[in-house]
Write a structure and sequence with these properties.
By secondary structure, the protein is α/β, with parallel strands linked by helices. The chain has 30 helices and 15 strands. Strands 1, 2, 3, 4, 7, 10 and 12 form a seven-stranded mixed sheet that branches. The chain has a two-stranded antiparallel sheet with strand order 5-6. Helix 11 runs antiparallel to helix 12 and helix 14 crosses helix 16.
Length: 745
């Protein structure tokens, strides 16, 4: 499956107990006397530093251009394993030395190691967003800065990834902070878990001390506890969730804990790995390294992730670490311990922090980047990474004054967190200050028909109007403001009855104003149908109709397995089954529908439009046979792609061209995808009629995004609710005579 979001990196904190040494490297674990000395020429596990360098290199190459290294995003999984190994090694040593973990000291080391460097990047991101990004993006990025500062941003991204109304959202310059958030959450719970398991091991040992049974080794209790409580449940959940909700599964902590847990198990079982013969350890380590490199080439963005596929980099990374205990100089340390790799490994946290915001800033300034431009920006990221490492990370990390006081370290980290939160809130405040408020007095929007402005145009499909054309602005400024137009939604969203992508329950919305008894009308379909709720509610009330809606994101009413993000949209099928049962039990007089969905799975497994057409005809014909009249409103046109306009959405284009929106952001109405289904289905069902509302939305074939200072478009190809309200009279004139004539037959 294709990942919707850029693949980002790793966690970061690879420091060691009490900073462990002045270099911040991982100490060698001395092998038993009968084994060959472990890396006798080095004091530290340089292969771990080299692994860090490889991981960050994989990620940087992938982000520079996915074509350079398709599976480079799996570098994040390598780092999860390494972080789990390093942190657990620290904790176990402290437990074995003192019997517990000094929690204030542990959290203080994390705070001074991670938060200052991250705070600098968050401030830079806030400034670069304000200076170079479209103001439409300020709100989301401001939220991301706050979430990143508090290390919960992975849950923000998980929520946004399945928000159908956030389909235009661009990759955040802080997208990479999701993995840092996962690790920070891991750091919060992990020492508590280790303490709990160590206490359990001590309790079991005391109980068995009076019996003839041999005591259970503490590490065996730790390994068993981690396996049962973390690794196996998280892995099972990751496999399941990746198959059912891949967008969310990529970001959430629960699908990633098993990867950190794998590294933790390697640390817990260290005495076993030290007993491996050097030759066997060397084979394991080199095999793991080769597997890592190969996995980066065979994994692609189409691979369902993390799920079971993530076992490949997780296991191979673990093999390199395991083999490194006793492989000696013949192991991968000969490569991973090279000075350039060790240097990059030490710089990897800063590199990771800086490279992605710089790539996004480059896109804002210069436009979409090719591989060479991406590589150039990634190479440039070494400069701020090195400066930040030398001027901020090292001085704070190795300051004797700061290290001597956990309270001081925690306070320092809290201050940098607060700075990040403030930067995000300032950006959010700047967003709200740019959005002009609407007039205090309500404005009548029952007739803002854009087709009137071209009534005398020879190319217009509309008949000339008898009354003078009024094109005076309805508002002093463009309304809704482009920065908030994504919230300009029909009431069915606030009512909670427009079903989300994951939902399957057929939840109706019943109008409070359209409660007449002349006709029972149902608004049915996906969000393209839902966008007509506001004017249809007024039309229904004016004509003494009752009105109920059944809508679900990206789900048209069709007897077919629709496709969403290259996967079978099983939730849509389940929802359709429920809606069909409801409608067939009590068929309405009229169904008003619309849809964008154009592809479904055919019987031979292929994906095509024809199954959607056939499935739509099937369901419509069932209703028609019961006397129901079907009115199919046209799909509204799609904004051209990013390459053509330089903007992902109409409203973002308008936001940056407020003085000349119709000159710079107008587009052709040729991309009306859903009509490929709606028109032929209406032709095939006698009691169904296709109504082309695009003669009003895009008169003369050109979609001008602003009419009488009303912004017409919100997400994707949806019209704003403000503009939809203005379509009340045109909608009434189109459908009321049609419905009256059809229901009287």
């Amino acid at each position: 499956m294709r990942h919707d979001f850029p693949r980002v990196k790793f966690g970061s904190d690879l420091e060691h107990p009490a900073e462990m040494n002045t270099c911040g490297k991982i100490p060698i674990v001395t092998a038993p006397a009968q084994q060959a000395p472990v890396q006798p020429q080095h004091r530290f596990r340089l292969d771990i530093e080299g692994l860090r360098a490889l991981a960050v290199g994989f990620v940087l190459l992938h982000h520079a251009s996915a074509t350079l290294l398709p599976g480079g995003f799996a570098g994040v999984d390598m780092f999860f394993v390494v972080s789990g190994f390093v942190i657990t090694t620290q904790l176990i040593k402290e437990v074995e030395r003192t019997g517990t973990v000094n929690l204030p000291g542990f959290y203080a080391r994390r705070a001074k190691r991670l938060l200052p460097a991250a705070g600098m990047v968050l401030i830079f991101t806030a400034i670069s967003t304000w200076a170079f990004a479209s103001r439409v993006q300020w709100s989301n990025i401001g939220t991301d800065i706050v979430g990143s500062s508090l290390y919960v941003v992975n849950w923000v991204f998980a929520s946004r990834s399945v928000d159908y109304l956030a389909e235009d959202a661009q990759p955040s310059p802080l997208q990479h902070f999701w993995s840092l958030a996962v690790e920070e959450q891991f750091y919060v719970i992990w020492p508590l878990l280790i303490i709990g398991l160590a206490t359990l091991a001590t309790t079991l040992a005391k109980r068995r001390s009076g019996s003839r049974s041999a005591p259970i080794p503490r590490r065996a209790v730790l390994a068993g506890g981690l396996l049962v409580l973390v690794v196996l449940p998280s892995l099972a959940w990751s496999i399941y969730y990746t198959q059912t909700s891949p967008e969310q599964a990529y970001f959430v902590t629960t699908t990633r804990l098993w990867e950190l847990g794998f590294g933790a198990l390697v640390a817990v079982l260290a005495p076993t790995w030290k007993l491996l013969p050097s030759r066997i350890a060397t084979i394991i380590a080199w095999t793991g390294l080769a597997g890592l490199v190969i996995s980066m080439l065979i994994i692609t963005t189409e691979t369902a992730w993390p799920g079971s596929a993530a076992l490949i980099p997780v296991i191979t990374t673990s093999m390199v670490i395991i083999g490194g205990f006793s492989s000696g100089p013949t192991g991968p340390v000969t490569l991973l311990g090279l000075k350039p790799l060790v240097w990059i490994g030490g710089l990897s946290y800063s590199l990771y922090l800086w490279h992605w915001p710089l790539l996004r800033t480059g896109e804002w300034i210069f436009g979409e980047q090719g591989p060479y431009q991406g590589l150039a920006i990634v190479a440039f990221s070494f400069l701020p990474a090195w400066i930040g490492y030398q001027l901020v990370e090292k001085p704070i990390r190795y300051s004797k004054t700061i290290s001597a006081s956990p309270k001081f370290s925690l306070s320092l980290g809290a201050n940098f967190t607060a700075i990040g939160v403030i930067a995000g809130l300032l950006l959010l405040t700047a967003t709200s200050s740019t959005a002009e408020s609407s007039p205090d007095e309500p404005v009548s929007l029952t007739n803002i028909d854009p087709a009137e402005s071209t009534a005398d145009d020879a190319e217009s499909t509309q008949q000339p109007v008898d009354e003078p054309v009024d094109t005076s602005p309805l508002f002093d400024v463009i309304t809704p403001d482009p920065t908030v137009v994504t919230t300009d939604l029909p009431a069915i969203y606030a009512m909670g009855c427009s079903v989300s992508l994951e939902g399957t329950d057929a939840t109706p919305c019943t109008s409070d104003t359209a409660t007449g008894d002349d006709l029972d009308v149902v608004l049915l379909g996906d969000s393209k149908a839902g966008q007509w709720w506001t004017p249809l509610e007024t039309v229904a009330a004016d004509n003494n109709w009752s009105l109920v809606s059944y809508t679900k994101s990206a789900c048209s009413y069709a007897d077919a397995m629709l496709i969403k993000d290259d996967l079978d949209y099983v939730e849509c099928r389940a929802w359709n089954d429920q809606v069909r049962e409801i409608l067939m039990a009590d068929p309405p007089d009229v169904v008003v529908t619309s849809a964008l969905s154009i592809n479904a799975r055919a019987e031979d497994g292929s994906v095509d439009t024809q199954p959607v057409i056939d499935g739509t005809i099937s369901y419509w014909q069932e209703l028609a046979d019961q006397g129901t009249v079907i009115v199919a409103l046209s799909d509204t046109p799609q904004f051209p792609n990013l390459e053509d306009y330089g903007y992902p959405s109409v409203y973002e284009c308008v936001a940056d061209n407020l003085d000349t929106p119709n000159e710079d952001c107008a587009f052709s109405d040729s991309r009306v995808l859903g009509n490929r289904v709606l028109e032929p289905a209406a032709d095939a069902v006698a009691k169904a009629t296709f109504v082309d509302m695009n003669a009003y939305v895009c008169p003369g074939g050109t979609c001008q995004p602003v009419f009488r200072n009303v912004l017409m478009y919100r997400q994707g190809s949806h019209i704003s609710d403000t503009f939809s309200q203005g379509m009340t009279r045109p909608l009434s004139e189109e459908i009321v005579p049609l419905i009256e004539a059809s229901t009287q037959q």
